[in-house]
Amino acid sequence: MIRLGENDLYLLPNSLVARVARIGQDAAAAKEVRVAQWLEDGDVPAVRVLREVEQPVMANGRAVTFWHELPPHEFGSSIDVAAVLRRFHALAPPKGFVLPELDPFVRLDERIQTASTLNSDNRAWMLQRLDELRDAYDALPPGLPRAVVHGDAWEGNVVRTRDGDVVLLDFERCALGPPEWDLVSTAVSHVTTDWMDTAEWAAYSGAYSFDVTTWEGFDILRDIRELRMTSMALQVATTDPAHYADQAAHRLACLRGRHGARPWSGWRAVP
Length: 271
What we know:
Blueprint: E1 8-12, E2 16-20, H1 26-41, E3 57-59, E4 62-68, E5 73-75, H2 78-89, H3 108-114, H4 120-138, E6 147-149, E7 158-161, E8 166-168, E9 175-177, H5 180-191, H6 198-208, H7 218-239, H8 241-255
Antiparallel strand pairs: 1-2, 2-4, 3-4, 5-7, 6-9, 7-8
Helix pairs in contact: 2-6, 3-4, 3-7, 4-7, 5-7, 7-8
């Protein structure tokens, strides 16, 4: 076993990796395979799928895909993320298959409704906030040209090999949409959680050649990201309340204005 999480990863013989998706995610798994093949054909540095096998394979209701194991590596830096995104967003959309439209609200309703640590007042507030942000997203102001977006672009999905290659991972959320969505993934580390200082944020923005926090629609995408981060903490707290219920409650209290203005201290990573 390599990792258990949103997807479960297992090391197989011959330097292969099996990626086991959640139940009901077979369409997303199939998309990941097609995106990986498209990136390989375009000579973009990304994790490589095993092309000799028709994929995904279904096993007990879960989609399984097979990948070549990465060489020795470490997580990329924020600048690595910015550099690979700049190249990724410049790609023309694939011609061999159709990517879906970006859905920044995927699984949010489900996570809120099934969160066992939420009381009725907090659940109602989150659902109302979700509706407000859906309306705001539909009215986003103009920004960068629409592009293929990664959908979950953060340092955990970019690695640097010992040879210095920067490799992009995890194409489950790839879609067509505003590239600002990918940039906001890192921006919240600066403006929301204070995990990134001003100098590092300036270096990230410089590597991409755009500061998304100056865009008129930034607050909308920031607020959606924060709601996603909070709903993820709630999902984890549902299965492990002893370790994560306090973190989920703290994030929600911040969103509800109970800890003052951003950035908010006390946000810590959840699996």
